[in-house]
TrEMBL record:
Gene3D superfamilies: Vaccinia Virus protein VP39 (3.40.50.150). It comes from the Eukaryota. GO terms for molecular function: methyltransferase activity. InterPro entries: Lys/N-term_MeTrsfase_sf (IPR051419), SAM-dependent_MTases_sf (IPR029063). Keywords: Methyltransferase, Transferase. The keyword Transferase applies. SUPFAM superfamilies: S-adenosyl-L-methionine-dependent methyltransferases. Transmembrane segments: none annotated. Belongs to the methyltransferase superfamily. GO terms for biological process: methylation. This is S-adenosyl-L-methionine-dependent methyltransferase superfamily protein. The keyword Transferase applies.
């Protein structure tokens, strides 16, 4: 969940650049269809879109809706490549030929209470040529449309690499990476990670069944990932088209309808990387998820890898992060007019997770930092174990330089369509 910066473009702020929609990676130019440049296509008012899902939640999220908006990318001339991909996938899985027709692409915006934009994803609609009524939708897993998700991915993976974690082998599927996502939304983050990291095994925790329903019915998230309370797949048999779209990915995604505290107490998994984005419809980050004396943080300490475990928390503000002249804040205090609990949240996570008895001190140190998110009133909190600082006492510049240096490995290994630097360098402050 996020809030947009209410910036007025004046002579003082006009130097804030719009990010390029393409980036050169490994000699090729990669288009970022999720670039913030395209946000004008889906940021419009509720009445400007077409509602495709709407229902009332009894889990504190108010009215949950999904609103559809037109998108400009990819252009129609590029649709044939997706049709060929679907045909090839079908032939590989079913050993027979089938033709597909792409019907179009749309933005889908998940909202709480008709106002709060929880997340945004791009979906493709298609059908089999032999059956025009066989329409299905597929979320585009390579697209992260909201800057705070790019921030979480950038700081999380670059920090994990800075803790001497073998990211390349995880990306290539040669070693498993255990990931936990608390808060599901439309599922863009776990889909992105699963599609980019072949060794990623991702547990997703969502307390609201309506959010899960909205994501699978209207956001193009694979329904085959939903789990029962007994830990089995809710769908005994995967639909044919789900196999075509998601085989090789959905097997590594497990979506649980459960309270985060209950899940973390029950699970025995040890996680390399944890992402937490758990605001409700009233923009409240539940106290039990940051209570330093509560069971959630204490148990999370036991479920986090002792040598390199990394946690990323999305936090957002009640007011603009930028100073009045458009510049970044210069201190932890300046960065935190953000919601009255943010400073305490940061300190609680660092105190409990870094100081936990399970935290290993071999070859690195535990630390925490925050980085502000471009264009939004959000910040990413990162707490990690085993950060490699070469025997030195960690200080801001050395930590920042190490994370930035490792972000290049992240960009290259995952073939990212965006630069991690943009999401690491801005408003970088150590947590005391």
């Amino acid at each position: 969940m996020w809030r947009r910066l209410s910036l007025t473009i004046t002579s003082k702020t006009s130097n804030l650049r719009f990010f390029s929609t393409a980036i050169r990676r490994n000699g090729s130019l990669i288009e970022d269809e999720g670039d913030w440049f395209y946000s004008s296509e889906w940021w419009g008012t509720y009445s400007e879109g077409h509602t495709v899902f709407r229902s009332s939640s009894d889990k504190g999220n108010g009215i949950i809706s999904v609103v559809s908006h037109p998108c400009s990318k990819p252009e129609i001339v590029q649709w044939t490549s997706m049709e060929k991909w679907l045909q090839q996938r079908y032939a590989e899985i079913h050993s027979e030929n089938e033709q597909f027709t792409v019907l179009g692409y749309r933005w889908r915006v998940l909202r709480f209470n008709d106002f709060t934009r929880q997340t945004t994803a791009k979906i493709m609609a298609a059908c089999r040529k032999s059956d025009p009524l066989s329409v299905f939708i597929m979320q585009q897993p390579h697209i992260l449309a909201v800057p705070y998700l790019k921030s979480m991915v950038s700081v999380g993976l670059a920090t994990l690499a800075s803790c001497r974690y073998d990211l390349k082998n995880a990306v290539n599927g040669q070693k498993p990476m255990r990931v936990l996502c608390i808060g599901h939304g439309g599922g863009s983050l776990p889909l992105f990670l699963a599609s980019k990291i072949q060794g990623a095994i991702i547990d997703i925790v969502e307390i609201d069944p309506l959010v899960i329903l909205a994501s699978t019915q209207a956001m193009g998230f694979p329904a085959s990932t939903v789990m029962t309370s007994s830990g089995r797949r809710a769908l005994a048999h995967c639909e044919m088209i789900d196999e075509v779209m998601w085989k090789g990915t959905h097997e590594r995604l497990c979506l649980y309808e459960i309270d985060a505290e209950e899940f973390i107490v029950q699970t025995t998994n040890v996680y390399d990387l944890v992402f937490i984005d758990a605001y409700d419809g009233d923009d409240i980050f539940p106290h039990k998820l940051w209570d330093p004396s509560g069971p959630f943080l204490e148990t999370l300490g036991n479920r986090l890898h002792p040598e390199h475990g990394t946690v990323v928390v999305n936090l957002h503000a009640d007011s603009d992060i930028l100073d009045s002249d458009g510049s970044d804040p210069t201190s932890f205090q300046q960065l935190l007019p953000m919601g009255k609990y943010v400073s305490r949240v940061c300190k609680a996570y660092k105190k409990v997770l870094v100081g936990h008895k399970s935290c290993s001190r071999r070859g690195g140190v535990g630390l925490g930092f925050i980085a502000s998110v471009p264009w939004l009133c959000n910040t990413s909190l990162v707490v990690c174990r085993g950060f490699e600082v070469g025997g030195m006492i960690p200080e801001r510049d050395s930590v920042l330089n190490t994370v930035v240096s490792n972000s290049q490995e992240v960009e290259d290994d995952l073939n990212l369509p965006f630069s991690c630097f943009e999401y690491i360098n801005r408003g970088f402050v150590m947590v005391d």
